[in-house]
Amino acid sequence: MSEKNKLMSLTDAVKKFVHDGDLISLGGFSATLCPMATVHEIIRQKIKHLHIAACSNGQAVDELIGGGCVERIEIAYGGNGRFAPTCLHFRKAIEQGSLKVEDYSNYQMTLRFMAGAMGVPFLPTYSSLGTDIVNKWGFGEEYRAQDERLPLKKLVIKDNPFNRTDKIDKLVLVPALQPDVTIIHAQKADALGNVSLKGLVYSDLEQVKASKNVIVTCEEIVETDELRCNPEYNQIISFQVSAVVEVPWGAYPTAVPSYYDYDPAFLLHFYPKVAKDSIEWQKYLDEYIVGVKDRQEFLQLIGTERLDSLRADAVCGYNPELKRR
Amino acid sequence: MSEKNKLMSLTDAVKKFVHDGDLISLGGFSATLCPMATVHEIIRQKIKHLHIAACSNGQAVDELIGGGCVERIEIAYGGNGRFAPTCLHFRKAIEQGSLKVEDYSNYQMTLRFMAGAMGVPFLPTYSSLGTDIVNKWGFGEEYRAQDERLPLKKLVIKDNPFNRTDKIDKLVLVPALQPDVTIIHAQKADALGNVSLKGLVYSDLEQVKASKNVIVTCEEIVETDELRCNPEYNQIISFQVSAVVEVPWGAYPTAVPSYYDYDPAFLLHFYPKVAKDSIEWQKYLDEYIVGVKDRQEFLQLIGTERLDSLRADAVCGYNPELKRR
Amino acid sequence: MSEYTLQEMMAIVAAREVQKAGVDVILCGTGISTLAAVAAKKITTPDVVIFFETGAIDVEFNQMPMSLSDPRVMHGAVRLAGLAEAFALIQNQITGKKTLGILGAAQIDIYGNLNSTVIGDYFNPKVRFSGSGGACDIGSVVGQSMAFMELGKRKFVDKLDYLTTPGYLDGPGAREKVGLIGGGPQLVITNKATFRFDDLTKKMYLDSYYPGFTPEAIQEEINFAIDLSRAVEAVPPTGHELEILRTQCDPERMVLK
Amino acid sequence: MSEYTLQEMMAIVAAREVQKAGVDVILCGTGISTLAAVAAKKITTPDVVIFFETGAIDVEFNQMPMSLSDPRVMHGAVRLAGLAEAFALIQNQITGKKTLGILGAAQIDIYGNLNSTVIGDYFNPKVRFSGSGGACDIGSVVGQSMAFMELGKRKFVDKLDYLTTPGYLDGPGAREKVGLIGGGPQLVITNKATFRFDDLTKKMYLDSYYPGFTPEAIQEEINFAIDLSRAVEAVPPTGHELEILRTQCDPERMVLK
């Protein structure tokens, strides 16, 4: 077996690569490809004071906040599509003042990861000129000055040095993010950390490339030779990845294109009920996350029948028969 | 048929979208995916004073220069791999002073197209600090000032405004390129301009997205529904493309992965001979380019047997039996 | 005349506007926004490309998506890109000018600026919403945009609690002055009326009111005074439009109520 | 002892250096550079990832490529990216530090700076070469690099006609002062000797000379004075190394002469 084998248990991966106070970036988008198994493991290991960076992650961010792991967040969208126009714990924590938030747009967060991935300190955009994203800083200058891990400025506005007209040409420079660890869930990976994602990839690739460490959970471990047959379908390379863990149903209750659909019963009916009530929420944490040993036990609580009902059609990649209301 | 059908003859596509003095960007890299059919058509139509922008295009750039179409060029690498460490007309034209050249690196040219594609006036990099790429400008400040189509500066060096250490942190900002027309050759496209490239794509996508107009020649026109089966294999979208032309063997003598290999007999033996001798070169132009009506007639001169010998193996995408010396 | 719901009216108004706008691409969100895009494609502008900021481009739906990342936007798309490419496509003015963005928000002001971030003080909010998502990006750079809003005094406000997405900011020349490159909003579609923006003042005016409503009743639901003088009664959906909307655009009735 | 060519010696020296460097990735060009990378993978460091600036990553060759864009680098690769991603991978110091770049040039100076652009005046050149390609990028940002050069007074020059690719510029601290982020060259491999750079002065010194050559003869082929005091005779290729090089790395003899 190669020295570069990165297979390990999820418990070990989180122990090794996620620490109190880390800057964590979460892959996936609203209710698809959220790295839920890893999120639950982080809650189970009682990791605290996390600094989260994400574009539009829904379910993963919300459970992590509800699990008491998050101190501050930089994000573009704390919602879950039509399942939750605003994520419930996200909303409650900000309204109560227990979560510090810095607002960017989706493109800006993507550019920040992209700058990190490219190894440059910033990238330029025209987005947000004249808005409160420029004017109001969730992390004030003083707060930033005191914390070396934050850029001194939320963003900077600069003139285009190539402008040869008398028209105004200003750009918003957004600062790079290089997270301590990025956590994603994928369809397939090999033991070395080569990863194949199918369907939309959101900003997962920029997040992975920007990060010091990367934990990949996946539906299936495959041989490297299988991946070599279709290099166009592989996006992440072994030397960008720190840990690989096979976790079937690892994104449940969110969707994994070609494997399973999201679970509307969970997202539309069960979750809002428990997330709105602190007693119910504590029960959920105790029973479904902290009270189980691992993902396998969690899935047993969900039940095979329920999981089976979500399996994706081989052609369209979701379950066209799914009851979605 | 859709209003958005972009199929036309190569003659019409070049007439409509390529004009004297245009800024043209050429897809492909050294001896692969060079848009040779379109290059020949440009020479045939005697289009002059072109301003070329490319990363590492080999054969296409060199024939275009040899054809007398090019006035100035911004480029990273004027070579053709082991076929021609330096392209012959490229070298001769610069040494004779008949071609103005501005040198960048491959990453810088890519970033310039990427900036154009992103719609921002520049992108930052650490590349070239302290080198003559920074210090020596092929297009001087005065020359630039006189031509509105050029950025006033080759590049600009700026401090990182997010730097919170006392370490020096300077970046090279390279100016965006938005070519009048980008010319690429692809494996497959549909009539609307959706394009599927297989194998490496170099900077073709950034070049396409940065451009006001795009001419795509391809080996095969396919139905849109075929492209919809594998969206991960499609890179260019209809609304980014101006003209689509089916031109089998359109990149010959350069390679098209999965279709045919490069032609070593042409590139290693025939071309250097004719390119080094001005009488031979004129004969080549007369006989193979200006003297033929279209691509079909050119291919007849090359001969079916020779073309057949280049056909790619279905699995590896090239011809493993090819005589390459 | 056919019976129709106000939601159906909104979708049809949007579909007609897409045709008028002459764009090649619709960049849309979920819910009524996706429904409007599909209605445009099925009814008024069959060649239009439906595009999501997640990177799904030229999507052909079999089922309505629950989010921008729903696998239902992936199957049958021509291209699956990522966010970086999706937003670059609209920031790039060559393609951005061919694109119409569809927006929505919690609050709108007279210049078409939108708030989808907070109610109350940003640093101590009464209600926290999801935040910009891609809305600020779209409003900043896209060639033109329209917004779906519910009418009401808490929605059409004098001053936004937070300016998430730029419309015309504080009036004529303001976008140019701060350096914004996109085209700004063209149309606001509500459940009772539509609004456009005056060429000179960039202020919202009543463009049309739906059958059964009056300009004066519309003004009652808006927290700032608007010009009612140009308003006409909107043309209700035709039977043909309704037929396609109901049977081909959302047969599962995921959005249509 | 086995018979071997100087070209074989160069490839083997490089393969050994890759192991010493402890890198995960080799970023290479064509010709001797690809051969060296393949030799490293087959002989010294089987886990190393071979990577081309065109974006072919973790390539497993069946045949030697004629250029960085040869379809032979695509088949069997783990990933096919583009130039933008390829260069970002090395500019990003998280992955850039894991990478060893292999370079080549027409001229080199005592600080390991390279010229692959012109001989003579840039604005009126005697000889024009291809230009940087990705060399300047690699030299600017990659964690460490090595260069293949032919020895000779026209190649090892006192002053470059054009500084295409940064080595240590004009000496200690110079890279930091201009803001370069990568690690600079570690080794120069020629047809007769290898050179390294002094930790303090950043000047090139003779590291080893191949059997059959002397330090003094090497100095004769260099246009500037170098430190010969640390030179040792290089260990020639073993029979095992040569066997693998000839039979597994380039059986078609596309590069090996």
Would you mind describing this structure in some detail?
The complex is a heterotetramer, with 2 copies of chain A (about 325 residues) and 2 copies of chain C (about 260 residues). Chain A is of the alpha/beta class. Chain A folds into 2 domains: about 10-120 and about 180-255, 3-Layer(aba) Sandwich (Glutaconate Coenzyme A-transferase), CATH 3.40.1080; about 120-175, Defensin A-like (2-Layer Sandwich), CATH 3.30.30.40. Chain A is about 35% helix and about 20% strand. Chain A contains 13 helices and 12 strands. Chain A has helices at about 10-15, 35-45, 60-65, 90-95, 105-120, 130-135, 140-145, 205-210, 225-230, 265-275, 280-290, 295-300, 305-310; strands spanning about 25, 50-55, 70-75, 100-105, 120-125, 155-160, 170-175, 180-190, 195, 215-220, 235, 245. In chain A, strands 1, 2, 3, 4, 8, 9, 10, 11 and 12 form a 9-stranded mixed β-sheet that branches. In chain A, helix 3 (about 60-65) links the parallel strand 2 and strand 3 (about 70-75). The longest helix of chain A has 13 residues, at about 105-120. Chain A is globular. The N and C termini of chain A lie far apart (about 50 Å). Chain C has about 260 residues and is α/β, with parallel strands linked by helices. Chain C has one domain: Glutaconate Coenzyme A-transferase, CATH 3.40.1080. Chain C contains 8 helices and 14 strands. The longest helix of chain C has 16 residues, at about 5-20. The two termini of chain C are about 20 Å apart. The interface between A and C is large, with 74 and 63 residues. Chains C, D: This is Glutaconate CoA-transferase subunit B. Chains C, D: InterPro entries: CoA_trans_fam_I, NagB/RpiA_transferase-like. Chains C, D: Pfam families: CoA_trans.
